[in-house]
TrEMBL record, chain A:
<feature type="compositionally biased region" description="Basic and acidic residues">
    <location>
        <begin position="1"/>
        <end position="16"/>
    </location>
</feature>
<dbReference type="InterPro" id="IPR045864">
    <property type="entry name" value="aa-tRNA-synth_II/BPL/LPL"/>
</dbReference>
<comment type="subunit">
    <text>Tetramer of two alpha and two beta subunits.</text>
</comment>
<protein>
    <recommendedName>
        <fullName>Phenylalanine--tRNA ligase alpha subunit</fullName>
        <ecNumber>6.1.1.20</ecNumber>
    </recommendedName>
</protein>
<dbReference type="InterPro" id="IPR006195">
    <property type="entry name" value="aa-tRNA-synth_II"/>
</dbReference>
<keyword id="KW-0547">Nucleotide-binding</keyword>
<dbReference type="InterPro" id="IPR004188">
    <property type="entry name" value="Phe-tRNA_ligase_II_N"/>
</dbReference>
<feature type="domain" description="Aminoacyl-transfer RNA synthetases class-II family profile">
    <location>
        <begin position="150"/>
        <end position="362"/>
    </location>
</feature>
<comment type="similarity">
    <text>Belongs to the class-II aminoacyl-tRNA synthetase family. Phe-tRNA synthetase alpha subunit type 1 subfamily.</text>
</comment>
UniProtKB/TrEMBL annotation, chain B:
<keyword id="KW-0648">Protein biosynthesis</keyword>
<keyword id="KW-0547">Nucleotide-binding</keyword>
<feature type="domain" description="FDX-ACB">
    <location>
        <begin position="761"/>
        <end position="854"/>
    </location>
</feature>
<feature type="domain" description="TRNA-binding">
    <location>
        <begin position="40"/>
        <end position="157"/>
    </location>
</feature>
<dbReference type="InterPro" id="IPR045864">
    <property type="entry name" value="aa-tRNA-synth_II/BPL/LPL"/>
</dbReference>
<keyword id="KW-0436">Ligase</keyword>
<dbReference type="Pfam" id="PF03483">
    <property type="entry name" value="B3_4"/>
</dbReference>
<feature type="binding site">
    <location>
        <position position="498"/>
    </location>
    <ligand>
        <name>Mg(2+)</name>
    </ligand>
</feature>
<dbReference type="InterPro" id="IPR004532">
    <property type="entry name" value="Phe-tRNA-ligase_IIc_bsu_bact"/>
</dbReference>
Length: 388, 854
């Protein structure tokens, strides 16, 4: 590879380069009077300088400046030629003439350098202007993908629990009937067991269901990890609802279970409040009210003020006009659940809660139609960032 | 449960100006969730009008309308007669009618309609003369309301109705109905009696028990009833432990149900049908005790309550002929109970039913049936009824006689009959009191975190009807609690704690964040899934979630062979759709639907991914289902766990359209199989797992465009490729749609999240390119692996950067150009060293693949 030397543009190059190729003009002459060398006369030198400075000033681009340099500071420029005449002067005259020509050449070369810098700056600026692009159109060359709002919401909820020192447990969606119901104190005749719109696995005596809630992981965790226990369980759950604006047969819950010595409903409320704060920020009104679940006693439901009507619209389709939205069910773990999991209910007590991830996401983002979260339309995803 | 406010006010004192909204809020506080608030939807001015003039005017369309002048008193502000067009004809001048004036609101199926003066049939009609249907108080639309006919002339006179008087109150249109959700543990709240009691608990308002009425004492000579349960439920619980039978004779069942009762029934959500049925329903709503009325004349021999016998059948009132189960409890009659009259507590049959116009003597059944027996029968026959709903949740066994009495009283009063003095009350309850519960008075505080004094605990328990007595000195601080008969749900100490907490108020529970024992954060698997999702989204893929349900036709569409193990999917007994009864065995069985949906909605350049579990049923063992309340033994637990099918986490991608979009910046590039292969690789890279590739043939992929990813040990990670053209066609996807599916469990297990780094050499890198001519059948990856193996430890990286097929080499050959980078950890490599390594690499490729350097 050979690089092009761009030194021609550099000021002062004529002073140090190319001398060997110069033709001899005059030999030493001791007889001449210095004044008789016209080219070295002060007026002549001054005129050369003036011509050079004027040419430099007149150069309007780097090309013209290059020509001016060649003409006024090059090897065949008047001052270079005059300089060569100095050698022909008697020694007594050499010093003065040398000084005069040297100063003249210096002035020219300074002017060249200054003009060079000026023109280069102009050129650089011009190039930046010429290279400008309009970037105000969307450069959607490779658009970013997105996480799904439900998975990110569930992660955020899980992270809030981790922040409280809890661990995140998981369990299977196709679950043993025993874990889904009996371990949680839903006996076989329990009305609640019928109320759950359960998908059963074929054949009916397989003893398997699609879990109707994440609660079976309560029993799994207690059996596998023992106590004290603080686990949250995000996961997919199933009920035989047709998909519509507010129902989906496949949905997500976050379950929480804490079993330890001395836990009370106040700890339950504290945990829920902290989680609510993590998910919704300040200003959301909530209430805890009595409810019934087979696996908790006492039981409670946690509600949030309806995010669409805020209780102002009796005809609100989102909350049915009641002004409240159920966020989750919760309560103190039923003795029978602890016993089924081999935990001594006289020593340990605990609380459990479960809430819908869909509801949480809907609440956070003002989503009013469940289907938009379910259908996988990429335009829905595009409304969110990667972190929500 | 729908609660008419005025009915509620009969049993508990309501504040003068109470609203349905306030009542709902008070009930919520004690655990009755509000389901809705129902009002008439009629807004005034709705006033009495007297028709002054009625001018029939035939119209071109054949209809005759009446142009009326109606005196509405001062209600219109002027006192002048109101001109109204009316299409009905069932009235005459002088009649008192119901007029809604401009500004009034009527409920319509389309929403509220505000009445205004409007031009119609050549007149300005300033209001409307209303029918009962327009006001929502009846179905009759034959004509408009003539007030004396609707209310009775006596009542009109009594009320002194004159033109201009407000009718909203008179017609009950200001009435409100509060609807609450009753949780399964509180069956007693399926009655106005129970709701009123709860309202009293919530507000402290005085309560009057409607069951507290004079009850005629039972006699020995009542209608014969035999409780003959030879097969008690679960071997120990009798199906019926109390049966009251009352007889009322000489009733005229053609008489109208009184208007107030019909209205209450309607408001409570039941249709008035006829006097006998209406009275039994009314008592059920009032007291929570379901009743049944039999036509006495059709009965012969004693009433026998027994279990069904093999082969017995019953046509229930819903006109379904049912085969009975030996566990079903029946109401029968005859010496041997041979005539089946009803499924006890669930539904009656045609035999024995009362018939208005024929029936004159009625036998009222008020009984207490076992909750589980009723629940099982209801479930078995998929037959739900208002009666079953109450019995399943527990009916107060002490209200039986009072309910029968109330029904008798109402029939006598409104049907004109006489009550038989002979009364049957077959009471075989083991005890008339509920089992007592030992309660440590400190337990509510320990459980709830509110400091309840012992006095407060006792006060609350007594308020809800418990008998509380101190235990003996050996157990200081404890009391013995006997719950009231209507609270079969109060069975242990925690249930009493809940009563204390809810009556004292859940709003008093403080908020205390517990100090957890301290966790270890997310697991490696959890973090890995997040990382993979983030990496794919970062590369432009959209995360979606699909339902896991598929049908066998999907397997056909995907081209799975008949014996493909992926067809062996878990089947649901009750799928949402018969088209999709199976649980997917791969994500790619459901993910493409979402791609198609996006394309159909106009998003053509779409790359999707899903991370979820699939279900792989690898055995057919059933899971045992042991009973509640005890820990199963280890072997049973193991059997339960083992029966749950494997559900590994997978990740799948599918993409169509442009990978690089076209736009003002330049042209685009279609997504192709190399994109999905690269994404699949990126999943492994995200987890730091080195994977190998091998050419594969596997549905649903193009047989020549599919790569299998494996671990170093050969374990399959998954596949990436272009979908088979036929698959794309069958699924309605664009040509060249490409996809991949990986087993995340395999990758997560293989990922070493504590991998150790090697020191970075800062010595110069030496590049060397080789072009190898190999047979067309040689796989890029395999040639690369040979070069890698042959080059040895000095090889830092290798990449295939060009492939040539053409004239300059043989027809069955290809030229592969690789760039290799060499570097040593401790020195600058000499040319000789680099050449030697390169030559060794080429030699290995020559040996393995017959490669010749170009």
């Amino acid at each position: 590879m050979t690089a092009k030397v761009r030194g021609q543009d550099k000021p002062g190059r004529d002073r140090c380069g190319g001398v060997p190729r110069l033709a001899q003009v005059s030999g030493p002459n001791t007889n001449y009077d210095p004044v008789e060398v016209a080219a070295l006369a002060p007026e002549a030198v001054e005129a050369d300088v003036a011509a050079a400075l004027s040419a430099v000033a007149a150069a309007s681009d780097l090309e013209q400046l290059k020509a001016a340099r060649l003409a006024h500071a090059g090897e065949r420029s008047p001052l270079a030629l005059a300089n060569r005449e100095i050698g022909a002067l008697p020694p007594s005259a050499k010093a003065e003439a040398g000084k005069r020509v040297g100063q003249a050449r210096g002035r020219v070369s300074q002017a060249l350098a200054a003009r060079q810098a000026e023109l280069e700056a102009e050129r650089d600026e011009r190039i930046l202007v010429e290279e400008a692009m309009d970037l105000t159109a969307v450069p959607a060359r490779r658009p970013l993908g997105r996480r799904h709002v439900l998975t990110v919401t569930a992660e955020r909820m899980a992270d809030a629990m981790v922040g409280m020192g809890w661990e995140i447990a998981e369990g299977p969606g196709v679950e043993a009937e025993w874990f889904n119901f009996d371990a949680l104190n839903f006996d076989k005749d329990h009305p609640a067991r019928q109320m759950q719109d359960t998908f059963f696995v074929d054949p009916a005596d397989a003893g398997l269901v699609l879990r109707t809630h994440t609660s079976p992981v309560q029993a799994r965790s207690l059996l596998e990890r023992g106590v004290p226990l603080y686990v949250a369980v995000p996961g997919k759950t199933f009920r035989t609802d047709e998909l519509d604006a507010t129902h989906t047969p496949v949905f997500h819950q976050l379950e929480g279970l804490a079993v330890d010595e001395g836990l009370t409903m106040a700890h339950l409320k504290g945990t829920l409040d902290r989680l609510a704060e993590a998910m919704f920020g300040e200003g959301i009104v909530s209430r805890l009210r009595p409810a019934y679940f087979p696996f908790t006693e006492p039981s409670a439901e946690m509600d949030f003020q309806c995010f669409v009507c805020r209780g102002e619209d009796a005809g609100c389709r989102t909350c049915g006009g009641t002004g409240w939205i159920e966020w989750g069910g919760c309560g103190m773990v039923n003795h029978n659940v602890l016993i089924a999991c081999g935990v001594d209910p006289d020593r340990y007590q605990g609380f459990a809660f479960g809430m819908g991830v869909e509801r949480t996401a809907m609440f956070r983002h003002g989503i009013t139609d469940m289907r938009e979260m379910i259908e996988g339309d990429v335009r829905f995803n595009a409304q969110f960032g990667m972190e929500i | 449960m729908r609660v008419p406010v005025d009915w509620l006010g009969e049993y508990v004192e309501l504040p003068e100006d109470v609203t349905g909204e306030q009542i709902a809020a008070d009930l919520v506080a004690v655990g009755l969730e509000e389901e809705g608030l129902h009002t008439s939807g009629v807004g005034g001015p709705l006033v009495v009008g007297r028709v002054l003039e009625k001018h029939p005017e035939p119209q071109k369309n054949g209809k005759v309308i009446n142009w009326c002048q109606v005196d509405v008193g001062d209600a219109n502000g002027s006192g002048e007669p109101q001109g109204i067009v009316c299409g009905a004809h069932n009235f005459e001048p002088g009649d008192l009618v119901a007029v809604i004036l401009p500004g009034g609101v009527l409920p319509t199926p389309q929403g509220p309609l505000t009445i205004s003066a409007r031009k119609t049939y050549g007149h300005v009609s300033a209001g409307m003369i209303c029918s009962v249907r327009e006001l929502g108080i009846g179905d009759d639309h034959e004509g408009i309301i003539v007030l004396p006919r609707l209310l009775g002339a006596d009542r009109v006179e009594q009320l002194g109705l004159t033109p201009g008087d407000d009718l909203v109150g008179v017609l009950g249109l200001d009435r409100e109905v509060v609807e609450v959700n009753v949780t399964p543990d509180r069956g007693y709240c399926f009655s106005i009696r129970g709701i009123a009691r709860e309202y009293s608990h919530s507000t402290g308002a005085p309560y009057r028990d409607p069951a507290d009425l004079p009850v005629d004492p039972a006699t020995d000579d009542g209608y014969a009833v035999e409780l003959r349960d030879e097969h008690p439920r679960d071997g120990e619980v009798a199906g019926c432990d109390r049966y009251v039978a009352r007889v009322v004779r000489g009733i005229d069942l053609t008489r109208q149900t009184p208007e107030w009762m019909a209205r209450r029934l309607t408001e409570a959500g039941m249709r008035p049908i006829g006097l006998a049925v209406d009275v039994t329903n009314y008592v059920m709503l009032a007291l929570g005790q379901p009743l049944h009325a039999f036509d006495l004349a059709t009965l012969d021999g004693p009433i026998v309550v027994r279990r069904a016998r093999a082969g017995e059948r019953l046509r229930t009132l819903d006109d379904v002929d049912r085969e009975l189960d030996p566990e079903d409890l029946l109401i029968t009659c005859g010496p041997d109970g041979e005539r089946v009259l009803a499924l006890a507590g669930v539904m009656g049959g045609e035999d024995g039913e009362v018939t208005p116009g024929e029936t004159t003597d009625v036998l009222i059944e008020s009984a207490h049936f076992d909750a589980r027996t009723v629940a099982r029968t209801s479930r078995r026959h998929k037959l739900s009824s208002e009666a079953a709903k109450r019995f399943e949740r527990g009916v107060d066994p002490a209200v039986t006689a009072a309910a029968a009495q109330l029904a008798v009283d109402l029939l006598v009063e409104h049907g004109g009959g006489t009550a038989d003095p002979a009364i049957t009350d077959r009471d075989e309850r083991a005890s008339t009191a509920m089992p007592s519960i030992l309660l440590d008075l400190g337990m509510p505080t320990d459980y709830v975190g509110v400091d309840y004094s012992p006095e407060r605990v006792v006060e609350v328990l007594r308020m809800i009807g418990c008998e509380v007595t101190p235990e003996d000195e050996t157990l200081p601080g404890t009391v013995s609690v006997v719950p009231p008969t209507w609270r079969p749900d109060l069975t242990d100490a925690p249930t009493l704690v809940e009563e204390v907490a809810r009556i004292d108020g859940y709003d008093k529970i403080p908020s205390v964040v517990p100090r957890a024992t301290g966790g270890r954060g997310l697991t490696h698997a959890q973090r890995s899934r997040r990382a993979v999702a983030g990496a794919l989204a970062g590369q432009g893929l959209q995360e979606v979630l699909t339902y896991p349900f598929v049908g066998a036709t999907r397997f056909d569409e995907l081209g799975l062979a008949a014996d493909d193990p992926r067809r062996a999917a878990l089947r649901l007994a009750n799928p949402l759709s018969d088209e999709a009864p199976l649980m997917r065995t791969e994500l790619l069985q459901t993910l493409p639907e979402v791609l198609r949906r996006n394309i159909s909605r106009g998003s053509r350049d779409v790359a999707l991914f899903e991370i979820d579990t699939v279900t792989l049923p690898d055995h057919s063992a059933s899971a045992p289902v042991p009973d509640v309340g005890q820990r199963p033994d280890d072997a049973t637990l193991e059997a339960i766990r083992a029966a749950v099918p494997g559900q590994p986490w997978h990740v799948a991608v599918v993409a169509a359209g442009l990978a690089d979009r076209a736009g003002w910046w330049g042209s685009g590039r279609h997504v192709d199989v190399t994109d999905v292969a690269a994404w699949a690789h990126s999943v492994a890279d995200t987890l730091g797992v080195r994977v190998r590739r091998r050419q594969a043939e596997r549905a649903p992929f193009h047989p020549g465009r599919c790569v299998e990813l494996t671990l170093d040990d050969g374990t399959t990670v998954g596949w990436a490729g272009e979908l088979h053209p036929k698959v794309n066609q069958r699924l309605g996807l664009p040509e060249r749609t490409s996809a991949a599916e990986l087993d995340l469990e395999v990758l997560v297990r293989a990922s070493d999240h504590r991998s150790q780094v090697t020191h970075l050499s800062t010595h110069p890198v030496a590049a060397s390119d080789v072009a190898l001519v190999v047979p067309l059948s040689a796989r890029y990856g395999e040639v690369e692996e040979s070069l890698r193996a042959g080059a040895g430890a000095l090889l830092e990286s290798i990449a295939l950067f060009d492939v040539y097929v053409g004239d300059q080499i043989g027809d069955d050959q290809q030229s592969l150009a690789f760039r290799m980078h060499f570097r040593a950890p401790d020195r600058t490599l000499t040319t000789e060293e680099v050449n030697a390594a390169r030559d060794a690499a080429v030699a290995r490729a020559a040996r393995d693949h017959g490669a010749v350097q170009r």
